[in-house]
Amino acid sequence: MFRNYFSVALRNIRKGPLYAFINVFSLAIGLASCLTIYLFIKDERSFDAFHAKNKVIYRLDEVQNFPGTHEQKVALSMGGMGPFLQADFPEVIAYARFWNRGKELLVKNDTRLLIPNVALVDSTYLDLFDFELLKGDRSTALDHPYAMLVSEKTALKFFKSVDEAMNNTLTWRDKEYKITGIIKDVPENSHMQFDVLVSMATAILEDKNFNRQWGGNFLNTYLLLQPNANVKGMEDKFPAFLQRHDNDPKIISYYKLFLQPLDQVHLASTDIEHDYNNYRKFNGKYLDVFLIIGVFILLIAGVNFMNLTTARSSHRWKEIGVRKTVGAKKFQLFSQFMFESLLLAFFALALAGLLDILFIPLLNNLIGRQLSMISIFNHPVELIIVLMVTAGLGLLTGIYPSFYMTSFNLARIMKGGSKVEGKSLFRSSLVVVQFGLALAMIVSTLIVLQQLYYMKNRDIGFKKDQMMLIGMNKEANTKFETLKQELLRNKLIQGVTASGQRLGNNFHQWGFKVKGDTGVFEITPSNVNVDYDYLTVYGMQLREGRNFSKDFATDNGKAFIINESFAKELHLKETVGTQAGHSWYKNDSLGSIIGVVKDFNFNSLHYKVNTLEMVVHPDWGYDEMSVKIDGAHMEEAIAFVKETWNKQITTFPFDYSFLDSHFELLYRSDQQMSSVVTIMASLAILISCMGLFGLAAITTEKKTKEIGIRKVLGATESQITVLLSKNFAWLIVISFVTVSPVTYWLLYSWLQSFAYRININPLLFFVGGFLSLLIALITISYHTLRSARANPVKALRYE
User: Fold this and answer.
1) Least confident of 60-64, 470-474, 745-749
2) What is the pLDDT of residue 330?
3) How many CB atoms lie under 10 A from the CB of residue 542?
4) Are 29 and 244 in contact, with CB atoms under 8 Å apart?
């Protein structure tokens, strides 16, 4: 029986290869898209899942609400919080702190290398987290001061083998550290990335008060809780906990602690501003968007299948009649059509797998992922689910056409009649759904691209292009003025300055005093230590007052430039000239505000501009030198900067990056969403057009005799074309009216995640609708024009 079903199915495919191709190929694109989106979602949700205790590990986060700055969430915590929490809360089994020191210089004999991520961690770190240790004892490797674990990749940079590295030493910050373990390179799906782990016992030895530090947030704290711990109950006790360990009675108005589950750190932290140790942080809400898009595309492909199958049913009337005459039961006919539907679905799945194997590597390059179809084949359960979903799709898309075709009247068909068909409300509804979804995706793509363009090109208040960023150490700070003058002698160098923090990150906050009309009051803005020429090199505009200058001795540590937001917060009649200083300054030794700079976005555009003060404090040291170079001669300029650096600095390797690249990383999640939405919108349009192309072919074929009669009676080609096109045009207009409000609401909700965003222009919806209509008319024009130009004599002889 099944062999007969198979033979009949193949015969029908051969009789209508165009329609079979459209069905299989559109369904294949839908399945390929869904498989790709599944791999993407699976990759994002796999972050930190390899830790066996991930369900009971929580990151300690804060909500900070200081006077003079907007409320913000931070992932950093204080040094003493971990020890105090374990002592005060029986729910806490253990804690582990992660203090990332960033890029650091490690030395072994004559080998001096900058290692990207060096972090200090507690001895309990490997008890909480299951990073694989290749060599060493994970229970004791981090117990003692001046011990370190190095990654396999890092070990091979200094030694010939990991065996040679084990128990050897490396020098960091003029101290010798013993390598007590070799750790396997950190997986890509870990939100914590590191190359070297140094024992926190080192910091505790060098600072006896380290475990009692309170007031400064500089590390991440992770808590291992009892399996049945009441997390909400713990959070309710945190205010009392803060008051017990801090003498400031206002502490609970400044800080609110909360626990973030480890499995949410990667996908649910986009609202956390100080979140420096969250590799490839992604907006988890986008995963829901991608899932919906995948379902939409599969739905569009399924609609194609049902539409084309029911529309072509007239070609099988006589087959059905003959088979019923020779005794075929309705169930047998139904089974035949369902079998054909399943067969086409599995043909589509095979083609979808081939398409993914070919195109996923290209997608990986575009969105920076390592997706692979092999991951599905390596997991039998996932493969079975894919097969079951495909079978289910084949059954669902085949049920209506199967019922439709088996409902034909046998007597009428055998007498030469046909099934009476009026306008199919169901088929028209499917076309509306199909193009409504495609329209929604076109408009979404236009809005997303417009928002990303706005973020990329918005005036953020400073110039970031062609800005080299070079890390500095103590020697570089000592020789900074010499370096600066040497560099500026070359015409390719347009400016040199330095700062304690990088633009594009939320600057640290600390206390600041201002002497107002009613006395001295404290406020907590963001702060950054800068060089005298910082504003000039970055092209920041002063609203009032003056810039920093070496001509004024007090500009070193006693002069402050604040931004407009800070000036508005102060509500002073005369801002410039007001006495001010950092919280540790005595009231009788305050400096003064010398200028107000126009607000600039020193953080991502996802967040509003915070209050900010800038100060020149060369003795504090700078972390980074900024060199503005001539973009027309970039390679030559970089070579000159490197040569100058190597002549002056002997203890720190030359290492640079560009500021605009850093800003691109800030919007990576949004850019990836844009790429995926654009690709999927294109596929949705392609699938819709393929279905419309097939549907138009069937419709014009059915109207062949009608067209011939109309032409004989004097109808023009344009009138015939309008006749054949208007029904499809009306369906697309209906889809536009139906889908636009829902699409507007969804896009409006998405834009609320940006502090700085575009306004949705209703004209874009009309553009999207016009594009949909134009694409549809172009798609069906081949059939309509051919029918309109055909010889009416042939049409009258048709049947």
Assistant:
1) 745-749
2) 64
3) 15
4) no
Can you give 329-361 as a three-state secondary structure string? CHHHHHHHHHHHHHHHHHHHHHHHHHHHHHHHH
Backbone angles phi, psi at 462, to 5 degrees: -155, 170
Residue 631 above 80 pLDDT?
yes
Q: Cα(396)–Cα(338) distance, rounded to whole angstroms?
A: 9
The predicted model gives 439-465 an average pLDDT of 84
**Dihedral-angle region of residue 286 (phi above 0 means left; psi in -120 to 50 means alpha; beta otherwise):** alpha
Sign of the CA dihedral with 375 first, then 675, 188, and 58 last? negative
Alpha carbon distance 383, 373 (integer Å): 10
For CA atoms 17, 23, 24, 29, give the dihedral sign: positive
- Tens of pLDDT, residue by residue over 751-762, are 887 778 889 888
Distance CA 279, CA 266 (A): 8
Distance, CA of 675 to CA of 515 (rounded, Å): 51
What are the tokens at 587? 């009231």
pLDDT value at residue 318: 60
Please report the sign of the dihedral spanned by the C-alpha atoms of residue 542, residue 543, residue 548, residue 551: positive
In 3-state terms, the chain is what percent helix, strand and coil (to 5)? 55, 20, 30
What pLDDT shows up at residue 301? 80
Q: What are phi and psi of 377, to 5 degrees?
A: -65, -25
> Does the structure show a pLDDT above 50 at 420?
no
State pLDDT tens for residues 325-367.
666 666 666 777 777 778 888 888 999 999 999 999 988 888 8
Between CA 246 and CA 434 the distance in angstroms is: 61
Beta strands in 647-747 (DSSP E): 656-658
**Mean pLDDT of all residues in 456-478:** 92
527-545 pLDDT tens trace: 999 999 999 999 999 999 9
Q: The tokens of 37 are what?
A: 């989106």
Residues 6+ apart with CB under 8 A from 41: 287, 290, 291
Calpha distance 596→501 (Å, rounded): 20
* CA–CA separation, 69 and 510 (whole Å): 11
Instruction: Quote the distance between the C-alpha of residue 551 and its chain's center.
Output: 47
Q: What is the largest CA-CA distance in the chain?
A: 110
pTM for the full model?
0.84
pLDDT number for residue 649: 95
**Does the pLDDT value for residue 413 go beyond 60?**
no
Say how far apart CA 382 and CA 39 lie, in whole Å. 11
Written as one string, the DSSP assignment of 725-779 is HHHHHHHHHHHHHHHHHHHHHHHHHHHTT-SS-PPPPHHHHHHHHHHHHHHHHHH
Query: Which of the 8 DSSP states describes residue 609?
Result: P
Amino acid at 622: Y
Q: What is the rounded distance in angstroms from the CA atom of residue 751 to the CA atom of residue 452?
A: 11
